[in-house]
Amino acid sequence: MKTPDIDRRRFLALGTLASAAAGAKAGAQTSSAPPPAPAGPAATQVPLVLTINGTDQHVTVDVRTTLLDTLRDHLALVGSKKGCDHGQCGACTVHLDGRATLACLTLAIAAQDAKIVTIEGLANGTELHPMQAAFVDNDAFQCGYCTPGQIMSAVACVNSRHTSSEGEIREFMSGNLCRCAAYPNIVAAIKQVAA
Amino acid sequence: MVPFSYSRATDAQTAAGKARSAASSHVGAPVQFMGGGTTLLDLMKLSVMQPDALIDITPLERRYAGITTSHDGLRIGALARMTDVAESPVIFKNYPVLSQSLLLAASQQLRNMARVGGNALQRTRCTYFRDTTYDQCNKRNPGSGCAAMDGYNREHAVLGTSDDCIATYPGDWAQALIALDANVELMGQNGPRTVPFADLHRVPGNTPHIETNLAPGELITAFVIPGPPSPRSVYTKIRDRDSYQFGLATAAVALRLQGDTVTQARIAIGGVATKPWRAAAAEQFLQGKTLDEAAATQAGKIAFAGARPREHNAYKVPLGQATVTRALLQAKQLDVQV
Fold first, then answer.
1. Candidates 3.40.190.10, 3.30.390.50, 2.60.40.3080, 1.10.10.10; correct CATH number of B233-333?
2. Candidate from B1, B52, B109 with C-beta closest to A100
3. Is the pTM of this model over 0.90?
4. How close, in Å, is residue A66 to chain B by CA atoms?
């Protein structure tokens, strides 16, 4: 069987960018966004420079765009996931200056001073980050949707030394919800890396 | 979200001057200050708040995020992150109620983002406030009525309510501050002023859309805890799940004891009131008494003497009483070096 020369992730990312470009051409008439308040300002596009995974990324977005939507829809970094979009599930967790942060409640325009690390920035080439490897070793996911956020919080958990007990790990990780309830295996993965 | 302009504050007084109305106190104010943004952006996505201008005040953290102690007491900059205040060694050791109130709140991601000034101004979790498909909400839409009165009001307040609003003040940090007699330093268009934290928030009365006594443009710059440390202090939080959940009943307690005799008791209760709530009558009852289970139980009852429960939240009265009792007995049992 012939090996495809493009993987699923790259295919989806290309699709994301293509649809973003199509959306831009289609203009505002097709947008389902609510009409602007009469006295308020018009929608404004702003050029931003974001430092993501060690690289300066130049991107132009609407002022209202969250960091999460900027990553996913404008920069093809689709590892960070949108679960609730209200800061309740943790699927969008990234690091800003080393702190676990919710990308869905962060405006991209307000993140220009920070060093941003996403799940895509953890591995060293094809070599997994120790936490990624530990999640594989411990079967710490089922569907995988929450996993990038779980791993970003897990790395922060170890780096900030909140690993003295299973209870402390669970408390630290409580902002990352897992619909498949892989929690015991996630705790095991974190214990493995912290050991 | 409707379109808005975004600017970054360069100094507090200039930022204050840009606000056309009381930015932080009015739900509907067109100019809003943004710190961590964790409440504001959430409510903007829900269309509950629709400001046309955001002023990002996080650039002011270089000046207003420090934690210092002096003969005046403890000073905490309003732009300090919840995480940094909670894990500050001096606060962890000498003001455990402050540290615990933060660590028992939100998630580690939100504590990294949220600033303690904004946390004190956190808006209610009332479903009828947060869901714009309900027409009736006097806080979001003044004069429209209150859907919570006869709605599902399990999480609503029993103290400080009015006929117009029973929305619960959701925070924890504010209870710890009010129990420790904190003062709050403000910067406004006409310069700085200091007020007791207890005077910052308003009960809803017939203007539930005005939540604080902040003047137009006024920013919180610091909290100051006067006097000596309060090592014999605890924050007790009862909730539906054991982490990452708002409190149904909480108590902040700070005690000074001579043997088992109370020389000073300070008690604040949360999850049950429309604003950060000091239980002054319960404190007076305990003054000079031997603190045992009977006295702590009586103090809990006194704290809820004026409670006005609705259909689904009557459980909060006995739960809140027991929370106060437990917090008092936990504070008594602390092994404190004085």
1. 3.30.390.50
2. B109
3. yes
4. 9
